[in-house]
């Protein structure tokens, strides 16, 4: 597909040289028109990434695969005779880092895996904060503005969703993860270097986010759309299943703290802002029931509390 070729890949090392302006412009264009970009030369050591990928795959085999197969059995998904639209073909577990780590409460992780995930998360946290400052620069906001908004009284929420998308005998019958926009701030995804599956919606077409060894995929959540008053967009994405190969992905969500007050930045808001202002946790409570619905009614509902019931929340899903 010709369209894949244009997917924005940003070499962060170029920020230190002559091509800084073009690189900043590429990031800005990606934030305005894709909601996604992929970064290389981001400073995370490749041996750490390789180790995290290897241990995540081993952990799946040892501690998650059986549970996934049991889930298929209990939900009657072994034969997939018709399209399934209310379940995702994924195996996941969640790590929280901020405001408090739960890394030591997760069962079945080796000490080695725990240590690697702690190091990985700390580096991604720093990278997320650096990226937020690059966004501030492109948006004409003072350095530290987004970090400060996300801080609330307890600091940001930062967590990691570790996923495996096992091979699926009938990919056309079920998605690995149904289409959604992410609720939070900025998301950093380390994905399988071989098995693809992530797609984003651009101008009505689903476009593959290609695996690229040692890269990190960045995307923007609903909060950045609100704070930028729509200059930047959170974009619908999904994971398709594959007949061959188990896909690993590790998505880290750098989000506002639960009591952070979210509103369009005054320098980006016109006289009348189209976007609501709210406390982040209230948005998350709404999102948990309507994650797989379009974001626009969520924004409307946050403007007008009485509209929440009209969104037909389904059972709450676990989210960041
Ligand atoms: C998510 C997500 C994509 C992936 O968890 O919100 O979009 O590739 N994940 O796992
Ligand atoms: Ni997502």
From TrEMBL:
Q: Which Gene3D superfamilies match?
A: B-lactam Antibiotic, Isopenicillin N Synthase, Chain (2.60.120.330)
| EC number from the UniProt entry | 1.14.17.4
Gene Ontology BP annotations: cellular response to fatty acid; ethylene biosynthetic process
Q: What class of enzyme is it?
A: oxidoreductase
A Pfam match is DIOX_N
Q: Which residues form a coiled coil?
A: 110-137
What does the record give as its pathway?
Alkene biosynthesis; ethylene biosynthesis via S-adenosyl-L-methionine; ethylene from S-adenosyl-L-methionine: step 2/2
* Sequence similarity: Belongs to the iron/ascorbate-dependent oxidoreductase family.
Q: Which PANTHER family match?
A: OXOGLUTARATE/IRON-DEPENDENT DIOXYGENASE
What name goes with this protein?
A: aminocyclopropanecarboxylate oxidase
Organism of origin = Sisymbrium officinale
Q: What is the lineage of its organism?
A: Eukaryota, Viridiplantae, Streptophyta, Embryophyta, Tracheophyta
């Amino acid at each position: 597909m010709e369209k894949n070729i244009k997917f924005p890949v940003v070499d962060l090392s170029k920020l230190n040289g002559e091509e800084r302006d073009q690189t900043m412009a590429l990031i800005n264009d990606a934030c305005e028109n894709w909601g996604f970009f992929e970064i290389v030369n981001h400073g995370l050591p490749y041996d750490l990434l390789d180790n995290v990928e290897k241990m995540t795959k081993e952990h799946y085999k040892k501690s998650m695969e059986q549970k996934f197969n049991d889930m298929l059995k209990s939900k009657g998904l072994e034969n997939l005779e018709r399209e399934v639209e209310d379940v995702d073909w994924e195996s996941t577990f969640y790590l929280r880092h901020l405001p408090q780590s739960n890394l030591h409460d997760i069962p079945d992780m080796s000490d080695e895996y725990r240590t690697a995930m702690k190091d990985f998360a700390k580096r991604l946290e720093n990278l997320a904060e650096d990226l937020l400052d690059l966004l501030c620069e492109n948006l004409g906001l003072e350095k530290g503005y987004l970090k400060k908004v996300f801080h609330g009284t307890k600091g940001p929420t930062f967590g990691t969703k570790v996923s495996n998308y096992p091979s699926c005998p009938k990919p056309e019958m079920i998605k690995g993860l149904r289409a959604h926009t992410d609720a939070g701030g900025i998301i950093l995804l380390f994905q399988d270097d071989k098995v693809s599956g992530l797609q984003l919606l651009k101008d009505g077409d689903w476009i593959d986010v290609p695996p690229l060894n040692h890269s990190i995929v960045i995307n923007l959540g609903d909060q950045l759309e609100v704070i930028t008053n729509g200059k930047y967009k959170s974009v619908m994405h999904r994971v398709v299943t594959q007949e061959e190969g188990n896909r690993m992905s590790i998505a880290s969500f750098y989000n506002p703290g639960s009591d952070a007050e979210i509103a369009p930045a005054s320098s980006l808001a016109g006289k009348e802002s189209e976007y609501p202002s709210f406390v982040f946790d209230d948005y998350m409570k709404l999102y948990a029931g309507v994650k797989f619905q379009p974001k626009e009614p969520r924004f409307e509902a946050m403007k007008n509390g009485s509209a929440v019931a009209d969104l037909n929340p389904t059972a709450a899903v676990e989210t960041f």
